[in-house]
Amino acid sequence: MCGTPRSGPPRPQGPQARCALGRRCTVSEKCRCPRPGWTMTPPRNVVKIAIQMRDAIPQLIQLDQVPPLLCPTSSPLFLLRSCQDLEAEQLLGGLQSDSREGRLEALRHFVPLASDMTFAREVISRNGLQRLGTIIEDGDDLGEVLALSLRAFLELMEHGVVSWETLSIPFVRKVVCYVNMNLMDASVPPLALGLLESVTLSSPALGQLVKSEVPLDRLLVHLQVMNQQLQTKAMALLTALLQGASPVERKHMLDYLWQRNLRQFIYKNIIHSAAPMGDEMAHHLYVLQALTLGLLEPRMRTPLDPYSQEQREQLQVLRQAAFEVEGESSGTGLSADRRRSLCAREFRKLGFSNSNPAQDLERVPPGLLALDNMLYFSRNAPSAYSRFVLENSSREDKHECPFARGSIQLTVLLCELLHVGEPCSETAQDFSPMFFGQDQSFHELFCVGIQLLNKTWKEMRATQEDFDKVMQVVREQLARTLALKPTSLELFRTKVNALTYGEVLRLRQTERLHQEGTLAPPILELREKLKPELMGLIRQQRLLRLCEGTLFRKISSRRRQDKLWFCCLSPNHKLLQYGDMEEGASPPTLESLPEQLPVADMRALLTGKDCPHVREKGSGKQNKDLYELAFSISYDRGEEEAYLNFIAPSKREFYLWTDGLSALLGSPMSSEQTRLDLEQLLTMETKLRLLELENVPIPEQPPPVPPPPTNFNFCYDCSIAEP
C-alpha cells in the first residue's frame, strides 16, 4: 500500500475520485497506482513468477492472482507445462503401450525432452534406459520407432549419469546387427554407428566386442553411400576402432583399408565432394592421418644397430646407388683395407659426419626413419638422387650440401611439422588433403623436401657453417606451404619451389615492418598518447563481434559432440542471449534465442584449466588445445554461483570473446590478439602522422639548446626611424 509521500500530487478523495494517473480509485481500496514521489509496497495478491508467453522469450513478470488466467476472448495467457517427474512418468507409461501408435507418439514427445538433464535424471531413476533398451533389443519395428528409441537412448547416455560400460553384451550385439544389416529406414544406421562409437571409446572390453563383430568391409560399404551423416558416423566408428587397437592390430587394419582403396575414396568422394565438409568429418580425417603417420613412430624411435646385417646392407645399397660406376671400377682387385678406406671416403661424400655412418643414425629421433627416407629417395627417384650426390661431390668441400646430414635433419623437421608420434587432439581438424592424395605420402614429402634443401642451399650460396641457417629457411618454406593445404603433391611441389630464398626474405621483411616500430623517445611518446584512443577502437570492435554472435560446439569430457549452440550480445550490451541450433542452419535472430544472461549478473571470466567444464579432464597432451580454447563466465543465479561454459571454435574467436567479455566486466583486454591489433594500429597511425618526415632521421635525443650570446647588440630597435 502507499506510504508517506515525500512530494507529489495529493491522494485521491471521495469514493470514486480519480488518482494522479487518471484512474478511479476508491478510498476503501486504497490507491496503489505508481505515482512520482510515493514509495510503494506490492500488494499480497501480486507475485513474481517466470513464465513463457506464446512464441516469446521466457521472462520474469508480476502476476495479479485476482483475475482469471484465461483471457476474456479465447487463447490462454500462459503456456503451462507438466513438471519433469510427471512428464517422465507419463511418457514412460506410453512406451509400454500395446499399440505401435502409442509407443510412437510417446517417443516423439520423449526425444526433444531427453536433452534436458532434469528430465533425463527422472527417466533414468524410473528405469527408462532399460525400457528403451528393451525396445531396441526386441527390434519388432525397424522403422521410426527404432530410430527414435536409439536417438532417445543416445541423448540420455550423453548426460554421463550412467556409464557406457554398464551396457550388456546382448544389447551391443543387437545394435551391431543394425549396422551390419540392410535397413529400409536410412536414419537407423547413423544412430547405431554413433552408439557403437561411444561404446568403443568408453569401454575397452565392449570395444573389442564391436571390433570383432563389425567387419571393416561393412564400414567401407557405409562410407561409400552418398550420405554425409552416414559417412561421418562410419568414419567416426572406424577411427574409434583404430584408436582402441594395439599398434600391431592398427597396422594390419590400416594396411587392409589402404588395399581396399579407402584413401582414394576419401580423396575423391569426401575431400573433393561438391557438398562442404563438416567439422566432425574433418576431425576424423585428422585422426586417421595422425594414426597413419603414427605407424612411423617405432622406426623414428629406433636407432641403427651397428651389428644388424640387414641394416649394414641397406647402408651399402645407399652407397652403391650413388657411386656404383666409380666404386665398382676402382674397387676391383683392392685389398680389404683399401676397400674399407674407399667405402669410408664415399660415405663422407654422401654427407655422413662420421666415416662409420652408424654413428650418425644412432640419434633418435629420427633413428631408422631417416635411413628409410634415404633408401626410398634412392630407389624411387634414382636420377635425382645421383644428381644430388654427384653435384655436391664436385663442389668445394666447404660449399657441398651434405646429403646424409641434411636427410637426417629434414626427417626430424618433417616429424615435427606433421606431429608424428604425438597423441591425437580431441578437437583438431588440421588434416592435409595432400596426405590422402598420395601413397607413401611421408616419404614422397621427404623426396620433395630434400631436393628443396639442395635448391635453397645453392640460392643461399651456403657453406658447411651455414647448415643450421639453411635448415631454418627450409623449415619456413615447408611450414608456409603446408599451411596453404595444397590438395596434391604436385601442387605442393609447385608452391614450395616458388617460395625461393629471396621470397622468404621478402616475407620476413614485410612481417618485420608490420611488427617492428622505431624506439626513438619522440615516437614512443607519440605511441603512448595514441594508445587510449586505439584501445577504445579495439574495445568497440570486440563488442561488435560479440553482437554478431558465434556458433559454439558442445564438447563433453569423453568425446566431440554434434550439438551446436549460438551466443551473442544484445545491441544495448546488457544481455548475453543464447540457445541451441542445428548444424547448417542460418544464424538465429535475437528473438528466437530462449536463454538470457544479464551482464549485470556476471561476476568473473575464467579461462583454461580454471574453467569448471575442463577442470576434471587431467593434464594430458591431447587436452592442451582444449584448455587453450576453453573459457567460462561465472554469474549469480539467485544465491548460487553458476557458470556459462564455452569452447571457442578457434584461437582467434577465443581471443575476441575473452576480450569482449573482459570489456563488459570492466577488466583490461590482455589477449595476444589485442596486443597484435594494438601494435598494428599504432604502427599504421604512427606512420600516417610521420608521412612528412619520411627518410628524415629522427634523433634519439632532442638537439641541445645553444647557450645565449655574450651580448645582444645585434638586436634591431624598430622604433627608431631611418633618416
UniProtKB/TrEMBL annotation:
Pfam family, one: ELMO_ARM
Domain of life: Eukaryota
PANTHER family documented for this protein: ENGULFMENT AND CELL MOTILITY, ENGULFMENT AND CELL MOTILITY PROTEIN 3
Domain ELMO positions: 310-482
The species this protein was found in: Mandrillus leucophaeus
SUPFAM superfamilies: ARM repeat (SSF48371), PH domain-like (SSF50729)
Example GO BP: cell motility
Chain's role: Involved in cytoskeletal rearrangements required for phagocytosis of apoptotic cells and cell motility. Acts in association with DOCK1 and CRK. Was initially proposed to be required in complex with DOCK1 to activate Rac Rho small GTPases. May enhance the guanine nucleotide exchange factor (GEF) activity of DOCK1.
Name of the featured protein: Engulfment and cell motility 3
